[in-house]
Design brief:
Blueprint (H helix, E strand, L loop, with lengths): L5 E6 L3 H13 L6 E7 L3 E3 L4 H5 L9 E3 H5 L5 E4 L2 E5 L4 E4 L2 E4 L2 E4 L4 E2 L7 H4 L6 H19 L4 H7 L1 E5 L3 H20 L8 E5 L11 H13 L2 E4 L4 E4 L3 E4 L4 E3 L2 E4 L3 E2 L2 H4 L11 E2 L12 E3 L4 E2 L13 H20 L12 E5 L5 E5 L2 E4 H20 L1 H13 L1
Parallel strand pairs: 1-2, 1-9, 2-5, 9-20, 11-12, 11-17, 12-13, 19-21
Antiparallel strand pairs: 3-4, 6-7, 7-8, 10-18, 14-15, 15-16, 22-23, 23-24
């Protein structure tokens, strides 16, 4: 009887998980006795860096997601369309909604969950932006609010319908707010609402938006946001939310029918409940090779990994750029484990960062150079195109390249 193939199981088909699967497939090309399984509850790879554009109607649902089957094609990777519900590290078994799957090496690359920091009513009443479905709900809800406001004569009821509050002024909050302000302008024209009535407020607990970003670029971003008509409430924390309002730490109450929370993320619930040693926001403590310190051979990458920056001695941010780097290192180390060769350490390297500020505008930096305006926006789009090429070649790039220049 032929022995069962050994299996590398990858949980999550986001940036980190998908890149790990594709990289491993190339590295293990000659290893016919080993199988790669990629497991995800979605059958599409979602481009989460584009969700703010989907929420504001600038990008279609189709352009922000790609069928996983299209990416994998004839590659030696088996995709399992299922949700992981439990991990038994002792038995090396992952329980999914489609049954149990054993593993020899495991890569945990789930996406993150929204962190509500225990704020009363926030998880119940706020929209979040972590998936295509979230973005679709936000877009539809805001449109419905404007449609209702058109026929509402009572100002006390009409005003909250036209007011959007974004809780959190980090990258997601800023990119979302600067897209939504344009969406609100388009809706105002469509539903014949005076342009001075809709209001968008960003609430941020820190002194500035984009905490940790280059201060000169932060100040520029804030100037752009204010020029757009976005109200910034800085050094102000959210303390409670309900269906019709949000309350701030200074006891101010903002009547609003639309609250979107972008204030933070934490590790996936399955990871938090798995028994692995974890730190702040349930992110798993890993060794320099990105393995769980509890279970060698279990690699944790992306949003769920607690990795400390050797320069700042602080946890690195859960970004797509760093997730892709971690995928490369985890893939190399799995090959090293299989071939009994030396593993490599993960050292985070940020080559640049960009934050979009609406249509064809952005700020950011590359190496030692700061960029702004159209150039920053263009470089940010090139980053996306380069990523698409890395996972699917020109077949994925060309349609989006055409859209980029014709939109």
């Amino acid at each position: 009887m032929k022995p069962e193939k050994k299996q590398v199981v990858i949980l999550g088909a986001g940036y980190a998980g998908l890149r790990t699967a594709l990289r491993l497939e190339r590295l293990l090309k000659q290893d016919l006795d080993r199988r790669i399984l990629l497991i995800d509850k979605f059958d599409q790879h979602q481009l989460k860096t584009e969700l703010h554009e989907v929420a504001a109607g600038r990008t279609s649902l189709e352009r922000a997601s790609i069928q996983i089957s299209k990416i994998l094609g004839n590659k030696n990777i088996d995709f399992v369309h299922a949700e992981a519900v439990n991990i038994d590290f002792a038995q090396r078994i992952v329980t999914t909604t489609r049954g149990k799957i054993r593993y020899d090496q495991l890569v945990i690359a789930f996406g993150s969950e929204t962190e509500f920091f225990g704020i009363s009513g926030m998880s119940k009443h706020a929209f979040t932006l972590t998936s295509i479905e979230d973005a679709k709900r936000i877009r539809t809800h805001i449109r419905n609010m404007f449609a209702q406001a058109k026929d509402e004569k009572d100002d006390a009821k009409r005003s909250p319908m036209l007011r959007i509050v974004v809780g959190g002024g980090g990258f997601t909050g800023v990119e979302l707010a600067t897209e939504l302000i344009d969406y609100m302008s388009r809706l105002s024209k469509e539903f014949q609402i005076p342009p001075n009535e809709p209001e968008l407020i960003v609430v941020e607990a820190s002194e500035n938006v984009l905490p940790g970003f280059d201060l000169e670029l932060v100040k520029l971003a804030q100037q752009v946001m204010k020029s757009m008509g976005i109200t910034l409430k800085l050094k102000t924390a959210c303390t409670a939310a309900d269906a019709d309002s949000i309350r701030l730490k200074n006891d101010e109450k903002i009547p609003a029918r639309t609250l979107i929370w972008t204030g933070g993320v934490r590790a996936n619930d399955i990871v938090a409940e798995s028994g692995l040693k974890y730190g702040p926001r349930s992110r798993v403590v890993v060794n320099p090779y990105l393995e769980s310190v509890d279970h060698p051979g279990v690699y944790v990458i992306g949003d769920n990994a607690l990795v400390t920056d050797p320069v700042t001695n602080r946890p690195i941010a859960p970004t797509a750029q760093l997730a892709l780097q971690q995928a490369e290192v985890a893939s190399i180390n799995i090959l090293a484990e299989i071939s009994e060769t030396k593993k490599v350490r993960y050292i985070p390297k940020v080559a640049g960062q960009f934050v979009s500020l609406g249509d064809r505008n952005a700020v950011g930096w590359v190496g030692k150079f700061k960029v702004k305006g159209f150039l920053a926006w263009f470089l940010k789009r090139l980053t996306l195109l380069r990523y698409l090429y890395s996972i699917g070649g020109l077949e994925l790039v060309i349609p989006r390249l055409v859209f980029l220049f014709l939109s």
